[in-house]
Every structure is written in C-alpha cells, then in structure tokens.
Amino acid sequence: MTLAFTSLGTSPLTGKAAVDQCIAMKRQLRSVLPFIDGASAMIVTDAESQRCEVRAVYDRGDKYAVAWATRAAEVSPEIWETMAKRRRERE
Question: Exposed e or buried b for every residue in 49-85, given b needs 16+ CB within 10 A?
Fold first, then answer.
C-alpha cells in the first residue's frame, strides 16, 4: 500500500476555531461521501501558523480509493463554501 494525500482545503480560521471547523468539514464530507476501505480524510495542523487543513489520505494502488479521493476533492469546495455561508449568517 502506497499512501497518497490530496488537500481538501484549509480553514480560514486559526487556532481552536480552525480545528473545530476542520472537524465539522470532515463530518460533512463523510455525510456526503462515506469513507471506504483504503480512503479517508485526516486533519493536519500547523502549530506555527495555527492553521488547519483537511486532506484525503488514500491507497494510490486502489482504483476505488483513488476515485474516492478525486470525488472528495471535487465536492470539498462546495462544503467549505456552505460552511462559510452558514457562519456568515450566524454573525
């Protein structure tokens, strides 16, 4: 198994708010596109910048996992936009 990673977007927030937003994004992604064997999403944080990113992690040798990661990259911008819109409405 050779793991590959694809960025699914970075939270515009910082610190704990960024982590919370990435957790919510990952949850929304899972509701739209359930994780499969060989493919999932992970949260990556950068302590220095206090930024947080969601990445697809998948088995590069598994065509279904590659297809899942490709689809996740396609739907992620819409999920981030929906989350941002909801956040603006609450403010």
Answer: eebbbbbbbbbeebeebbebbeebeeebeebbeebee
HSE-CB for 90 with a 13 A CA cutoff: 6
Question: Residues 11, 55: contact at Cβ < 8 Å?
Answer: no
Neighbours of 20 (CB within 10 A): 13
pLDDT in the model for residue 90: 84
Q: What is the pLDDT of residues 17-75, one digit of tens each?
A: 999 999 999 999 999 999 999 999 999 999 888 899 999 999 999 999 999 999 999 99
Amino acid letter at 36?
Answer: I
